[in-house]
């Protein structure tokens, strides 16, 4: 049911599938309202060419292990999964038959909030990372562009309750962004579930000397 109406974006050098109806309206409304109030949203700074700015959105980071997550000079320590975010994690894991360790949550307060061109290719995520990205609240346009072939790009509107699944070589060959918009719009919550393997775990077949 949740994976109904799946759309494979058929991007070259990538594996991206969009599930518009992952959560029905009742579920999505409930999760938006509760997460908006419950998550301790934080304002981080970003440094661009030595100057410091407020990041143009609020964020929070959840993790199953104590592995911090670093990107753009920001290191985030995980909060535990509980309540609604845990419920969502369990639902996604059941539907995709995949276990996630971490979730980076973004709150786009209005059209001035955005997320610039990037790939989620931090080394903590390993090769060919799988990223399951949920939209709650206001729809926003999501852009893809190929890193090497300027002719390859794609736009799609991410709907309330939808899931965008990026895997395979998507992060190696493509960038994505949420651009600003001058439309007068309401807030949007985005949840990106990721797998960050625990460091320093001794493999079971290793020989300790
Ligand atoms: O808000 C979105 O849909 C994208 C978020 C994103 O790309 C990220 O957090 O890495
Ligand atoms: Fe991203």
TrEMBL record:
Any GO BP annotation: DNA alkylation repair
Keyword entries, A-Z: Dioxygenase, DNA damage, DNA repair, Iron, Magnesium, Metal-binding, Oxidoreductase
Domain Fe2OG dioxygenase span(s) in chain numbering: 99-197
Cofactor(s) this protein requires: Fe(2+)
GO molecular function: catalytic activity, acting on DNA; demethylase activity; dioxygenase activity; hydrolase activity; metal ion binding; oxidoreductase activity, acting on paired donors, with incorporation or reduction of molecular oxygen
Pfam family, one: 2OG-FeII_Oxy_2
Highest taxon above the source species: Bacteria
Protein name, entry field: Alkylated DNA repair dioxygenase AlkB
Species whose genome carries this gene: Hyunsoonleella jejuensis
């Amino acid at each position: 049911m949740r994976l109904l109406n799946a759309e494979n974006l058929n991007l070259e050098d990538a594996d991206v599938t969009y599930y518009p109806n992952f959560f029905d309206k009742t579920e999505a409304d409930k999760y938006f309202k509760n997460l908006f109030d419950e998550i301790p949203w934080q304002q981080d700074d970003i440094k661009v060419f030595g100057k410091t700015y407020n990041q143009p959105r609020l964020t929070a980071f959840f993790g199953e292990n104590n592995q911090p997550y670093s990107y753009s000079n920001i290191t985030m320590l995980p909060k535990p999964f509980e309540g609604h975010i845990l419920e969502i994690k369990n639902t996604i894991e059941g539907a995709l038959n995949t276990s996630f360790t971490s979730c980076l949550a973004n709150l786009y307060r209005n059209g001035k909030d955005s997320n610039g061109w990037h790939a989620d290719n931090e080394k903590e995520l390993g090769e060919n990372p799988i990223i399951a990205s949920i939209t709650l609240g206001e729809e926003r346009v999501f852009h893809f562009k190929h890193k090497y072939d300027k002719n390859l790009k794609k736009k799609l509107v991410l709907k309330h309750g939808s899931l965008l699944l990026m895997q395979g070589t998507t992060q190696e060959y493509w960038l994505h962004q949420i651009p600003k918009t001058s439309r007068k719009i309401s807030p949007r919550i985005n949840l990106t579930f990721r797998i960050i393997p625990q460091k320093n775990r001794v493999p079971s077949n290793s020989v300790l000397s």
